[in-house]
Amino acid sequence: MGNKRKDREVQSDDDEPRTKRVDGGKPQLLPSMIKNKDKRSALYAKLKHEKKTEKRKNAKAREALENRALELGEELPPKKIPRTIENTREADETVCRPDDEELFAGNDADEFSSVLNSKRIPKILMTTCRFNSTRGPALIKDLLTVIPNAEYYKRGTYDLKKIVEYANNKEFTSVIVVHTNRREPDALLIIGLPNGPTAHFKLSNLVLHKDLKNHGNPTGHKPELVLNNFTTRLGHRIGRLIQSLFPQDPEFRGRRVVTFHNQRDFIFFRHHRYIFETKEDKQNDAKDKDKDTGEEKKTLKGKIIARLQECGPRFTLKLTSLQHGTFDTKGGEFEWVHKPEMDTSRRRFFL
């Protein structure tokens, strides 16, 4: 026992001290080094307050420098750009460039060109998987209010290939299939017609229209479409697939916006109504004092603000595969498939 205790003491002496060095070289006591809960909480609160005070001090100093630069007519000091996962992403050769002539030439010959050039009117067929629950048709009911010219057909016992063949004969431009698992929608299949492609998305974080707090009711106007951060060749193709679901002549009078925002390969879907209002602010201006009475005049300044009201539904998509042509599980050729080994880096994105 004595030898073991001596060995522990020798090891503890050889270990580095559990202190943090500050700029002056003095060791700083950390909360994790204190065993007493009350003292540890007090030290943590003190360090947090000091950090907040330092941050406020730096903000005031930066504001003073900006005001001085404006008075002297000099250039403003450069703003520090925080390091994020997005702006430190790994370099990707497939990122689209504005001067990529090959990309624009391919747009005129791809499967979506007839719809996006307004030669064909988008017409969408929506259905569910064979064994669906009430949440699947409820999601489709919400999507029918989002996507114009969409129709719902009950799946029954029909094979998906038969449905695609029927949709081609009826001149539909796309087929959307909502897949459910354990009574909850978990996947979305979008099939472009007549020649594909077929995109399979994982669906999560679903909130239906009726479950949104203070939700709005959309009108029947054609919505505006916003696509954000689809920067790579694959993302550009997925963006054009989503764009082909909506008419290319939005009715701005309806003030409806449908947004697909891509961030770290997760596509966030939102549906809003917007309105612009003029807000009047009463401001006391010391320069507007009346010379005779010395009273301050109240000036009304109108500020235009935008208010949003979410209409729903709300969900998140993640691409799992993109297949050439229409749906074919056996002989289909895949353009892109997500694999587990692709997730080795947090800074690698594909859309």
UniProtKB/TrEMBL annotation:
Taxonomic superkingdom:
Eukaryota
Official protein name in the record: Brix domain-containing protein
TM stretches of this protein: none
Ranges annotated as biased composition (Basic and acidic residues) = 1-24
Positions of region (Disordered): 1-39
The segment(s) forming the Brix domain are: 122-328
| PROSITE patterns, per the entry | BRIX
For this chain, one GO molecular function annotation is: rRNA primary transcript binding
Q: Which organism is it from?
A: Mikania micrantha (bitter vine)
Report the GO terms under cellular component: nucleolus; preribosome, large subunit precursor
GO BP terms in the entry: maturation of 5.8S rRNA; maturation of LSU-rRNA
